[in-house]
Amino acid sequence: MEIENIKTTITNNSNFSLSTLSKKEEGVFIYSSIKENTFICLGVNKINTDNDNEIEEFLTKYVHGLDKKLSNKKDKLIIVILKNVEDNYDEFYINQKDIDNGYIYFNNYKKGESTLKNANEYLKNIGIKTIEKAVKKTKTSKKKTIQSVEPNIADLANGWLKSYGLDYKLEQESLNSEIDKALNDYYSKNGGAGGNRPDAKLLLQDKALNFYPILIEYKGYKDKLVKLSADEQVENKTAKNEPNFTNINSYAVNGAIHYANALLHHTSYTDIIAIGMTGYKDESGKINNSIGVYYVSKSNFGVGQKVGEFDDLSFLGSSNFDSFVEKIKTLNLSQKEIESLKEKREKEIDTSLARLNNDIYRDEKGLGENDRVYLVAASIIATIGIPGKVSPLEKSELKSSTEKGNTDADIIMRKIKAFLEAKDIPVEKKNLIVRTLENTITAENINKIKDGETQLKRVFCKIVDDLGIYYKIGLTTDFTGKLFNEMYSWLGFSQDKLNDVVLTPSYVSSLLVKLARVNKDSYVWDFATGSAGLLVAAMNEMLYDARNTIDSPEELLQKELKIKAEQLLGIELLSSVYMLAILNMILMGDGSSNILNKDSLSDFDGKYGFGETDKHFPATAFVLNPPYSADGNGMNFVHKALNMMDKGYAAIIIQNSAGSGKAKEYNKDILKKHTLIASIKMPVDIFIGKASVQTNIYVFKVGEKHHKDEMVKFIDFSNDGYSRSNRKKASNNLKDTGNAKEKYEEVVKLVRFGKSQLKLFSEQEYYENRIDPNNGADWNQSAPIDTKPTLIDFKETLSDYLAWKISTFIKQKGKEPSDSLNKRICDIEWGEFKLGELFEIKPTKYYKLSNEEILSNNGIVPLISNSSTDNGVMGFSNLQPNNKGNSITCSDTTLGAETMYYQEKDFIGYSHIQHLVPKFERFNKAIASVIISACRVATSKKYNYGNKFNREAMNKTVINLPIKNGEIDFEFMENFIPQIEKEIMKDLPF
């Protein structure tokens, strides 16, 4: 169908008269161009039906069909379906903002509710967004609606701004090109592409000449100021760490903070004021308003801190603004708030990285694993910028031109070269980086132009959109650690290489650095650098020490430069991983000048790789997580590195078989020149999801032969206080469930100062003993165990035996026939009942915690799991029960009712456990026993792994129960079951 232009211009707050619109065919207004790239379709009487087939026919023809015909990606489609239109309903109102964001409007009249529901369902299925809007009131309309006072709020606030003499800009007006572009590039409040327009905006300067963008959003309802989460943070993210567009679109403060994040993401501004203002009319017609003011910055991760609630906007006036700025400078997040925000940000990073990889893998054909890594590296380097030297590359600068020297590849590589030049990176290294990235960036396939853009531009924009907010508002090891872990997984290592490329968790890296006694004057090297996580941890420790011990600003600056340029050295053999190391160090502070791409065992002579290449690196600290497939599980790296050092300390994490015989010869040779100080047994799941190996940390003193009487500290750190999981959809796979941070601090003190520091660790977990320097296989000792049994041991053994004997006896007795009881069953009249008619079947409520966090040795509340034994009880907890007892539970992951049990007491539920709550009052253990028995018979051999006994199946299951006069015979069940119990128990052999 072709687009029919009409004279009516649709603008914000306009009324639209049906009579002014021309008809294309009976009952249907077709397409009217309301602004560039936006089209409206008005459907009138054609959808005046509740017949599903007619609804589908209309929507397919006029809605879905038009959607397919809008070829330009910028085109937006708005559908307004009017049902049961009468003469007096001649006008309606559409909000301009929502039109721009591509929503479909339904104006719901006094009839046709089911039609609206059916139409909404259909549009949802074909992926089109919908929204309901009340019709504009006319004189004949009797329905009372709450009218938005947003125009009044806007007039009031804008009047204040004008009275203060401030140069403010309204929704459609330009503030400056940088801010305008950022608002346009950021995803909209409804999740679409761009189109963010604050109701008012201005740029103010304080006495220090710093600029602060002010972004204001208005709403016209009483309860639409701000939506907060349970922890009192502005709730702009869902539980899945995705944008909460409902809150962003509906609440004034949430919308303003959304705009502020657009500026953090796409501009050089790092301190932004987000203001939300809303109001309502009271019964007297007076306008009441509320104002929420939030400070959004790099320091609060873009989430925003509440400055306060104000009666007006006078704090923006020239006489008050400096005082206001001083106030926001005093805002400090507590450590708890920082940790909470960091945790949320980590979850967001996980989501963004996974989405980025999935999108590129799914949508961008022809890109190999290394290509993806190099594209991310190139995009970040090109867009990070250097203040005053190199401006960040903007997405708009890529024009997908074929002009020589101005292709997308040319522009990106030009920016990368400028960045590397400004960083004073040595020529040899700069050339290596450029060559490596250039091979991917300039490849012919990704520079072909299709639909007006190159694949290179498309991927570049995707990377910036998904990751830019994290590295532009302040880089942390949280971001880089997760970034490089994710990119490691992209590299597609072969199975035999997987254990060789396992990254060290950041908290373990920090532990190794502290055990190696790194300080501001250390010279640290790593012979298997990977993505440089250990060197980043070392650099952070060195900088921290410098900032806490050097008072002179000039001296501190020089020391920081020296640390980054001269005091770190890393060696990585794999070129793809080497690029990650370079990028990591660049992102975390320029310490990239001595990352070498070579074989540390055969090609490294101990000298600087760049700059003073004839000078030996004076290493005083060695940290390492070696490839475990190397000789001696990687002890060959340790052997070489320690023998190239004159003094200092070393801390390595390695497969523990290296200390129990696998590296015997290396170990004996190492101890001829160096001392083993400590051996720390780490949790077996430390690398969960990547590798399952038992590791130890070995700590050495360099340059001093190990004496046979030297006492070595053996620490069992198997229980480090963290619980780990490897669930893809888990909100947080690492949780501190047992004083983890304090335990890691105590380990460092124990290694340094000995047994006097024992607090959290038990005597059994800390043990000192000698090793034989000529053995080499006795490095993994543990405290001797007292093998004499105690009274508790005797009781446990006897309890286990008695439980088995009783269980076996009862099961055997249960199979023996009983003539008297059998006769009673034969006389029973049976009736059929659906389980869903007898019970409300719903999922049990459960805690979103790990089992370790729920269970307790002295717990009293049962935790019901999917087990087919022990009445489904996994263990006991001290947490509050969240499901009522005197009911039945059953797993929905099994092949029938074998996991169906009666629960007498209140309990804690579990994932995939269904809760059967009786709809009748008379219920107890006896009645439950009959029902469970009937269910097990009814479901026996009926279900399989492809057809499980889920909630739907439970509801439909038909069981036979005793009846009397057509009703369930509860009295019989209550008498019969105790008789069976009595018969089984009477012959117990005790």
Q: Would you mind describing this structure in some detail?
A:
There is one protein chain. This protein is of the alpha/beta class. It has five domains: 16-133, no CATH class; 150-333, no CATH class; 344-469; 490-769, Vaccinia Virus protein VP39 (Rossmann fold), CATH 3.40.50.150; 817-985, Alpha-Beta Complex (Adenine-n6-DNA-methyltransferase TaqI, Chain A, domain 2), CATH 3.90.220. The protein is built from 28 helices and 35 strands. Helix 5 packs across helix 7 and helix 16 (533-549) packs antiparallel against helix 17. It starts with 15 loop residues before the first strand and ends in a 5-residue tail after the last helix. This is site-specific DNA-methyltransferase (adenine-specific).
